[in-house]
Design brief:
By secondary structure, the chain is mainly α. The chain contains 16 helices and no strands. The longest helix has 53 residues, at 360-412. The protein has helices at 9-25, 27-64, 67-77, 82-111, 115-143, 147-170, 174-201, 210-244, 247-263, 265-284, 286-313, 315-323, 331-339, 341-356, 360-412, 417-424. The protein has one domain.
């Protein structure tokens, strides 16, 4: 397969970085909404919202079940698959959405007895289903390297969320009003996304073919397991704090975590921009693949080091500026989380490298080990140290994950082009 973009590779990558930066920067809009929510709801209700949001984010990986990453890689290597993959994935997600909604209802009834928490969870779960369908379209746009369209989807979603959420909060509708705003915003955003997809790949509809579904899902299964575990790893501390320490401390912790999460978008820009190019280079030009991967990881390390010192020094000011003095007890938590940038930033880019070399099983092993370490450390540290213990567990888990993934990627370098071609053949819809 020839690389149609070889001659314009540097220009194309710069364009990818630009739109990936804009897309990632749109996360600021979500952060603004969460800041407004923290101030309007108060620490207790913000803790409730953070709890249900974390639970639905964990479950969202089950709705996608690895399909977005398989789609991006497959379309990057063969653009003719875009329309077929959209049709099959949209249909297949009906099944996973039903399973996920059922499990979320059961989890909410088991973990929380408050009616408002449960109802907010149901609403956010439905909003997550809608977001999962938008993610499918974004993965196709990424594979096509139409980052302008991917960015349009992200901006539309975030602007609508901020607008609807701010109206609900300013109107005094509280926790349930904010959750309902997520649903309303995502309905409109999905409609816009559908129209963009039809314009780019042509008319498509739901495709039902059991053989293709099984073929596609078998390839996506390692990704599914990885992202389910990864989402659990990223948000299990919030769920455990909500159960073990109460809503107020959960609200404080999430004030710090949201700021930390905002900084974490920086390496995501690098990984997101280079993922489709890495996937194509792995089967067309190994030398370029190694060089681009090395540049990406080196850049992420430099960015992590640069962000750590100011984040630690300015932690109280950042907490106060964003959420107010009510959340100042979380300053120590933010300092611990920011110290982890030196491992979090390169780890995010290494995820993209692993996807490009068909090392999804390595990602699964990495995430599983990191998640188990995180859960065990949270169990040991939260009872005695609360939210500070949860932050230490998060950083320690990231460091363990980085060491594991570096080792596994180094072992994977010996994969031959013949083996890669044999694996990718399974992705072709029949």
């Amino acid at each position: 397969m020839t690389d149609a973009n070889t001659s314009a590779a540097p220009h194309g990558l710069l364009r990818n970085f630009f739109f990936a930066s804009v897309s990632s920067a749109s996360g600021v809009l979500l952060l603004v909404l969460l800041i407004l929510a923290g101030r309007a709801l108060g620490d207790a209700d913000f803790g409730k919202f953070s709890f249900v949001l974390a639970l639905t984010v964990i479950a969202e990986a089950l709705m996608d079940f690895g399909l977005k990453d398989v789609t991006t890689r497959a379309v990057a290597r063969d653009r003719r698959l875009a329309r077929l993959l959209l049709g099959h994935t949209f249909a297949l997600k009906l099944l996973w959405a039903a399973v996920t909604m059922t499990l979320l209802v059961m989890a909410l009834r088991l973990l929380r007895s408050e009616a408002d928490v449960r109802l907010a969870g149901y609403l956010l779960a439905f909003a997550a289903v809608l977001r999962s369908y938008m993610t499918t379209v974004r993965s196709v746009f990424s594979g096509l390297e139409r980052f302008d369209l991917e960015t349009s989807v992200m901006l539309t979603d975030r602007i609508l969320l901020l607008g609807c959420g701010a109206l609900a909060l300013s109107g005094g509708y509280g926790l349930l009003g904010l959750a309902a705003a997520f649903v309303g915003a995502r309905v409109v955003a999905l409609a816009v996304t559908w129209l963009l997809a039809r314009r780019e790949v042509g008319q498509f509809g739901l495709l039902f073919d059991v053989r293709t579904w099984c073929d596609l899902q078998a390839r996506a299964l390692p990704f599914a397991a990885f992202f389910i575990v990864l989402n659990a790893y990223n948000y299990i501390d919030t769920v455990m704090l909500g159960v073990m320490r109460g809503d107020v401390e959960t609200g404080w912790y999430n004030a710090a975590y949201r700021i930390y999460e905002g900084f974490s978008h920086i390496p995501s820009i690098i990984g997101f921009a280079i993922t489709p190019r890495l996937a194509r280079y792995f089967v067309t030009d190994r030398r370029r693949h190694h060089r681009l991967a090395r540049i990406g990881v080196t850049g992420s390390v430099a960015a992590g080091v640069a962000a750590t010192a100011p984040g630690i020094l300015l932690a109280p000011e950042l907490i106060y500026l964003c959420f107010g003095d009510q959340y100042l007890p979380a300053a120590g938590v933010l300092r611990v989380l920011v110290a982890g940038f030196v491992v979090v930033f390169p780890l995010a880019v290494l995820h993209a490298v692993a996807i490009s070399i068909n090392a999804e099983r390595s990602l699964l092993v990495t995430a599983t080990i990191g998640c188990l370490a995180n859960v065990l450390l949270n169990l040991a540290l939260i009872p005695a140290y609360g939210m500070l213990g949860a932050s230490v567990a998060t950083v320690a888990g990231e460091a363990i994950s980085l060491g594991v993934l570096v080792t596994l990627i180094a072992r994977r370098r010996g994969v031959t082009e013949a083996e890669t071609g044999r694996e990718e053949t399974l992705l072709l819809p029949r």
